[in-house]
């Protein structure tokens, strides 16, 4: 029995590894294409040459100085969102759980809107969005806490708080001047526009720093999936680990929201798509991260180049989320008919 | 064999219970009347009750203008919207047997709102009636999608899947709507006040536009009520009792579409009203859907009028839209419910 289980899990592991590698290759491919697209079209060969050499040509300026930070952030943020979603879906044991659903994004938006109304510019949007998002996530966690946190309670409390903040946001925008309201709405759409190397460096560093605790927590996350009692029996301190996972998951989302505004649904969709491709029984961190990176880079490339007017990537990811839900519905109704 | 004999109430004769329920209904009507009076009296310029009564009879200057041209139409609109959303919520809770079902929470309102936004964006000159029809389209599509998601997972399904599916669908639709609005300056201006769920300044035209559809929705709801009682026993038993499950479902979806679509087209998305009212009703009457619906018809308007009055008096001379007030009241109620009940009880 044990050996059979061992072989099966080796196969799952191999499959996860192969899928992750393939997705990573696709992500690199998408990144190279994205680097070549824009007002000045550059061939893939020239892009690669500009990335690898240090010739100081005009092409290198365009590719490395102008376009690379955005594409790099697409990869890093996509991975961060994928990881964040995987953590939350595993914690809540629900394929529809994600940090945006439990209220983080609306909290961040409330913070951003309040700072825009209070000081009339976007200067303090990053700290106030972070404060709003993290305070909301903490409030949701505490309100859901009752002799431990159930995934179910966490989700419903998150939904309640999201709805409350959503109508608060509408009200704030109603009271703000038209100009301030539009500024807030643009931020709220979520976009990688105007991010440069300093943002890319900061964003990448923070995400990398968050990977350290996540590596340590990842194994315990899998044990929590077996149920609280089983995890406790295996020596996991259930509640502290769960709180730590919530903090890391929210932080991963928070970095993205701080720099790019809320980018919805990547955290929801990436872990599930990855799970279906790897045919794993549960949500896995690495495939989810790579899937997130691939999705966000691709979405941003499409949003920037395909429509006549460049759209915020947030709209593309909303469409992605919608497409995913529709697919889920179709797959479900097919299963029912059978 | 009726629902009553299957679930006998201990210690109360049926006639007794009926009288209690009717008394409760009268009390609910009295509450509504009191709230309506409050709604005519209070506002940014509170009027003495005497002036209000006088204003109803003859033109006495300012009070007449305020009461007859502003407060009466907005109160009537609040009544219609509250009734529509409460009955829609009761029907959804009855059909899905999910106590968290709410037109706002399950995304049906968001679907209706997207319909309205698209019409305003594509044809700014379109009539209010065109907006209402667009809202119906959005609402019916979303309602079907959400009920499908809700049936995911078969027997062991969790009540959260329905709610999360609805929330996710709602978020997609709302995201599309806000992007459309963002890319279009004039739609942005029009939609800003509508999105907040305010009943102010809409007047009789809004009431006249949606009232016939709400009436039709109520008729469908009455048709569905008996079938819902059978559904509450479980799908297998309902079929065995001879109820037509599909007819009930279609009637419910139709009623929810008409009620929620017209309410949303008039005042935007109003959260939680449709969730709270049926709970209060069920708490008073017990599980009979017909009584829950009857109580919702009275309690929904009461809650909406109360929210409107509250929004007018907390920040004089400013106003908080009624939709914001219901969200602020409803969110703690939902949190309380989920903290109190065991997960399995839902």
Automatic annotation (TrEMBL), chain B:
It is a multi-pass membrane protein. It is found in: Cell membrane. Signal peptide: none annotated. Keywords: Cell membrane, Membrane, Transmembrane, Transmembrane helix, Transport. The keyword Transmembrane applies. Coiled coil: none annotated. Its main location: membrane. The chain crosses the membrane at residues 22-42, 72-92, 104-124, 130-150, 162-183, 203-225, 237-259, 265-285, 292-314, 320-338. It comes from the Bacteria. The keyword Lipid biosynthesis does not apply. InterPro entries: ABC_BtuC-like (IPR037294), ABC_transptr_permease_BtuC (IPR000522). Belongs to the binding-protein-dependent transport system permease family. FecCD subfamily. This is Iron chelate uptake ABC transporter family permease subunit.
């Amino acid at each position: 029995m044990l050996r059979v289980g061992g072989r099966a899990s080796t196969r799952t592991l191999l499959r996860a590894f192969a899928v992750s590698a393939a997705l990573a290759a696709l992500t690199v491919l998408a990144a190279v294409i994205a680097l070549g697209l824009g007002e000045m079209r550059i061939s893939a060969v020239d892009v690669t040459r500009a990335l690898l050499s240090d010739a100081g040509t005009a092409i290198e300026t365009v590719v490395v100085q102008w376009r690379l930070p955005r594409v790099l952030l697409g990869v890093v943020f996509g991975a961060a969102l994928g990881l964040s979603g995987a953590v939350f879906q595993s914690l809540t044991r629900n394929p529809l759980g994600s940090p945006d659903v439990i209220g983080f994004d609306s909290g961040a938006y409330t913070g951003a809107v309040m700072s825009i109304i209070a000081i009339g510019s976007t200067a303090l949007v990053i700290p106030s969005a972070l404060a709003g998002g993290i305070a909301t996530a903490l409030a949701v966690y505490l309100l859901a806490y009752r002799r431990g946190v159930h995934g179910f309670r966490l989700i419903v409390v998150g939904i309640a708080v999201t709805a409350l903040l959503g109508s608060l946001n509408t009200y704030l925008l109603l009271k703000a001047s038209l100009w301030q309201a539009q500024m807030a709405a643009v931020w709220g759409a979520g976009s990688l526009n105007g991010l440069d190397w300093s943002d890319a460096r900061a964003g990448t560093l923070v995400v990398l720093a968050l990977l350290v605790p996540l590596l340590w927590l990842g194994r315990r996350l899998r044990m929590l999936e077996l149920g609280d009692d089983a995890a406790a029996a295996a020596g996991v301190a259930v509640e502290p680990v769960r709180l730590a996972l919530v903090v890391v998951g929210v932080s991963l989302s928070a970095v993205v929201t701080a720099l790019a505004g809320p980018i919805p649904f990547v955290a929801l969709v990436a872990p599930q798509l990855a799970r279906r491709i790897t045919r794993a029984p549960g949500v896995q961190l690495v495939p989810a991260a790579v899937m997130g990176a691939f999705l966000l880079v691709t979405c941003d490339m499409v949003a920037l180049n395909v429509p006549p007017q460049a759209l915020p990537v947030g709209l593309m990811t909303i469409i992605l989320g919608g497409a995913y839900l529709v697919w889920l519905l179709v797959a479900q109704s097919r299963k029912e008919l059978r | 064999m009726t629902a009553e004999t299957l679930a006998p109430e201990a210690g109360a004769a049926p006639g007794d219970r009926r009288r209690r329920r009717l008394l409760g209904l009268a009390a609910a009507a009295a509450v509504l009347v009191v709230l309506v009076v409050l709604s005519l009296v209070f506002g940014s310029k509170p009027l003495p009750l005497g002036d209000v009564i006088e204003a109803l009879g003859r033109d006495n200057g300012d009070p007449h203008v305020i009461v007859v041209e502003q407060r009466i139409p907005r109160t009537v609109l609040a009544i219609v919207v509250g009734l529509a959303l409460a009955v829609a919520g009761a029907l959804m809770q009855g059909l899905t047997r999910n106590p968290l079902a709410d037109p706002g929470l399950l995304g049906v309102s968001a679907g209706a709102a997207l319909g309205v936004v698209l019409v305003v964006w594509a044809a700014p000159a379109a009539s209010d009636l065109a907006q209402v029809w667009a809202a119906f389209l959005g609402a019916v599509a979303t309602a079907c999608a959400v009920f499908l998601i809700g049936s995911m997972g078969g027997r062991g399904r969790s009540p959260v899947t329905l709610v999360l599916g609805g929330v996710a669908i709602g978020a997609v639709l709302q995201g599309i709507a806000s992007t459309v609005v963002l890319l279009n300056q004039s739609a942005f201006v029009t939609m800003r006040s509508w999105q907040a769920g305010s009943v102010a300044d809409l007047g009789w035209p809004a009431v006249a536009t949606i009232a016939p559809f709400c009436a039709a929705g109520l008729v469908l709801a009455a048709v569905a009520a008996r079938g819902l009682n059978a559904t509450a026993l479980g799908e297998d038993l309902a079929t065995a009792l001879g109820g037509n499950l599909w007819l009930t479902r279609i009637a419910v979806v139709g009623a929810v579409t008409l009620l929620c679509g017209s309410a949303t087209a008039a005042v935007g998305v109003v959260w939680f009203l449709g969730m709270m009212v049926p709970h209060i009703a069920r708490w008073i009457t017990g599980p009979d859907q017909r009584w829950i619906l009857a109580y919702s018809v009275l309690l929904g308007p009461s809650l909406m009028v109360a929210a409107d009055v509250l929004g007018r008096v907390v920040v004089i001379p400013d106003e908080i839209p009624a939709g914001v007030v219901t969200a602020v009241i409803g969110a703690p109620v939902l949190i309380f419910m989920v903290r109190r009940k065991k997960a399995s009880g839902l």
